[in-house]
Design a protein that fits this description.
single chain; mainly alpha; Four Helix Bundle (Hemerythrin (Met), subunit A); 6 helices
Amino acid sequence: MKEQLHEAWRTNNTINFQFVEWIDEEGMKKTLSTRGGRTVYEQLFHLYNVRMQWLEIIAKDIFKKYKRISRDEPYSKELLFELFENSGKSIEEFIDKSWENNGKVVSFKKGLIPFVSYLIAHEGHHRGSIY
């Protein structure tokens, strides 16, 4: 069951990698918002930031292993790949840690599987805003 949860998370992360690969630099600067919302790059960067914000709350020991990046960081496809690679691994590490603790998640009372489901749904929502 734990491996299935890992696989679900990896599938979600792979979709993020595909978005980064498929969208060119000009596309990264665009937004579908009519009110000046986030660009595609900012949407993708937001996904990383939410992962890190949650890790800071639920697993400070894991959070400390990874660097925080300013959202004002200039566009870089390589940076996005690195951020999704590292934060993806950090969530997998958290899955293992929580699994060993009977699926408990600090500040997320419903537990590990609903937490990972929330992350996947949140990221899917933002990818939908991009596409």
